[in-house]
Amino acid sequence: MSRTTAATRPSPTSCPCCPAAPFLALRHLGVQNSEIQDEIAAAEAAAPVVARLDSLALSMGTLGDTGAQALLDGQPLTHLSALDLHHHYITEPLQQRLRKTLEPHGVRLNLDGPDYWDPEDDEPRYVAVDE
Asked: What is the tally of structural domains in the chain?
């Protein structure tokens, strides 16, 4: 009989959003409607669990160019069947790069509902659903 101890257990800190070990059967991950969507995208871009996913949703939050660039620079997402980023603040040039990188591999990319945001303005970016 084998025993799992703290020394032999996989580390749950591989990604602050989704540790790999407890989610071996996970095929869809949705971390949505967040004010820190860029930071979440950066974490997911390096999270080991993403390689096992069929679909990923980072929609309805404040995802902007920083998060989109992290997704492009991170591990390949070309194995996904779907990437949902709707309601976002990604500029058109980065939207085009996402399309060019993912769609030829059959990834259904949802970039619907872009919101315009002027970084020179003091107006904050908003999530899709709020109180």
From this structure: 1
Q: In sequence order, which ranges of 7-127 are alpha helices (DSSP H)?
A: 37-46, 65-73, 92-102
> What whole-number distance in Å separates Cα of residue 41 and Cα of residue 50?
11
Does some domain include residue 12?
A: no
76 in a domain, yes or no?
yes
| Amino acid 118: pLDDT | 66
Structural domain including 104 reads: 28-110
> How many Cβ atoms from other residues are within 10 Å of residue 100's Cβ?
10
Amino acid identity, position 131: E
Q: Which is more confident, 113 or 111?
A: 111
Per-residue model confidence as pLDDT tens digits over 58-101: 999 999 999 999 999 999 999 999 999 999 999 999 999 999 99
Establish if 93 belongs to a structural domain: yes
**DSSP state, 16?**
S
Would you say residue 48 lies in a domain? yes
Residue (of 50, 38, 118) closest to 85 by Cα position: 38
